[in-house]
Write a structure and sequence with these properties.
Oligomer: single chain
Radius of gyration: 18 Å
Distance between the termini: 43 Å
Structural class: mainly alpha
Number of strands: 0
Strand content: under 5%
Helix content: over 70%
Order of helices and strands: HH
């Protein structure tokens, strides 16, 4: 919108509104996950250990999802 100041079409406005509502609703689950990912990554100074920790977190989430 900033780069194209012309009036948006109705379907574009509806899409943006749906996207905003979806992001707001989903924030309840993804924000804590990203905060933990960030905290986990900051806990290691070695890049390889950061990647290993992130993979372990992802694997644990996948296992929870399967149940």
């Amino acid at each position: 919108m900033e780069h194209h100041p012309e009036r948006l079409k109705s379907d574009e406005v509806e899409y943006i509104q749906r996207l905003a509502r979806s992001l707001q609703a989903n924030e309840s689950w993804w924000r804590p996950l990203f905060e933990q990912w960030q905290a986990l990554g900051e806990g290691f100074s070695d890049t390889e250990m950061q990647h290993r920790a992130m993979r372990a977190l992802r694997k644990s989430l996948e296992e929870l999802k399967e149940r």
